[in-house]
Amino acid sequence: MPETSPPITYESRAEAALEQALERAAARDRLVLVVFGADWCPDCVALERLLADPLVAPLIDQGFEVVRLDVGRRERHVALAARWGIDYARGIPAIAILDGNAAPRLATRDGELRAARSMTAAEFGRLLGRSLVDETLRRVARFEPLRGFVRRSPEEMLDRARRFAEDLARRRTVREFSAEPVAREVIEACLLAAGSAPSGANRQPWHFVAVADPAVKRRIREAAEAEERAFYGGRAARAWLEALAPIGTDADKPFLETAPWLIAIFAEVRGDDDRPGGARNYYVTESVGIATGFLIAALHRAGLATLTHTPSPMRFLNELLDRPDRERPFLLLVAGLPAPEAKVPRITRKTLGEIATFIAPD
User: Which CATH number do you get for residue 247?
Assistant: First the structure.
């Protein structure tokens, strides 16, 4: 740690020193660390030792402009401390960390450092490091006015909601598809709709592989049917097979070749290491599930039928479609027009009372 200036006693000098530190911080993309202490205070002396510690000093050198203020017998720089909610009565030393615009990023308002003698360099380093990380993330965040939202009258909202519910109620899972081609542009538009789904920390942890190549579809069918034969031949529990019986499924999956499009949906477990916050993705299953729902609704609105297919395991899709190990297959979505003779199981859907509970004032 470089040689430091002595603590400032006079309040007029303190304001000037703070202004200069803020200017340097803004120009150098750093933070300002304001230290309130006194030489008679053992914990203040301990804090100075922590600031000079080999573990902490590099953080100070790289990220902070430091302003030291001598609080005397707690009678000096009181107004300046109060500006950031610091009350000497709760203990000294105290610190405030500011950005180049003088906005507070951290202040020890509850006497967190009054026992600095018992604090390790690692503990204090984490406190400073957290401020640097928080500041980095704050700078990454960008906000803009909400655009495109259309306010509607209560009557229009109800009408639109009912018509949308009625339209989706006509959606059925189809297992008999026509080979009639569907334009790539239709699939692209639906995938853009899926990509607008919300996701944990906006990581957007999904990847869609749209397959129309007959040779690739054949390989997918062969691999999927191999897994399905194992499933129906003994891997599945008897109760599971009984639950599937009314749907009429079996190990044969001709639709994987007949339908014009197969959309393999992958969940990205980890992203790029150089992203803010690291490689980890959050709420991956939930996020990809929502995006898949968007995609099914978009395909239905476009006039296409779909089938959700989940052979287990599905890792063969990574190899066939050349996807990295950090992605895991989530679902195989079959899309196209239903065959003219297509039939679907006779099923019922639960009522609103069975699927929803409302808690509202009387």
Answer: 3.40.109.10
**d(Cα 206, Cα 271) in Å, to the nearest integer?**
10
Do 130 and 172 lie in one domain? The reply is no
Q: What is the DSSP letter of 290?
A: H
Query: Is 154 a member of any domain?
Result: no
Say whether both 176 and 61 belong to one domain. Answer: no
Q: Pseudo-torsion of CA 167, 306, 345, 310, nearest 10°?
A: -130
Expressed as residue numbers, the domain containing 312 is 168-355
Note whether 132 and 177 are same-domain residues. no
Instruction: Please count the other Cβ atoms lying within 10 Å of the Cβ belonging to residue 57.
Output: 16
Q: Name residue 206's beta-bridge partners.
A: 267
Our CA dihedral for 317, 319, 321, 323, rounded to 10 degrees, sits at: 100
Question: What is the 8-class DSSP label of residue 307?
Answer: E
183-193 pLDDT per residue, tens? 999 999 999 99
My answer on whether 136 and 184 are in the same domain is no
Bridge partners (DSSP) listed for residue 69: 8, 36
Segment 262-290 mean pLDDT: 86
Distance CA 42, CA 233 (A): 76
Residue 239 located in a structural domain: yes
Largest CA distance in the chain: 92
More confident residue, 144 or 96: 96
Does a structural domain hold residue 265?
yes
Task: Work out the number of other CB atoms within 10 angstroms of the CB of residue 334.
Answer: 24
What's the whole-number average pLDDT of the chain?
Answer: 90
Residue 206: how many other CB atoms lie within 10 Å: 25
Alpha helix segments (H runs only) across 34-183:
42-52, 57-63, 78-83, 121-140, 154-169
Per-residue pLDDT, averaged over 161-186, amounts to 97
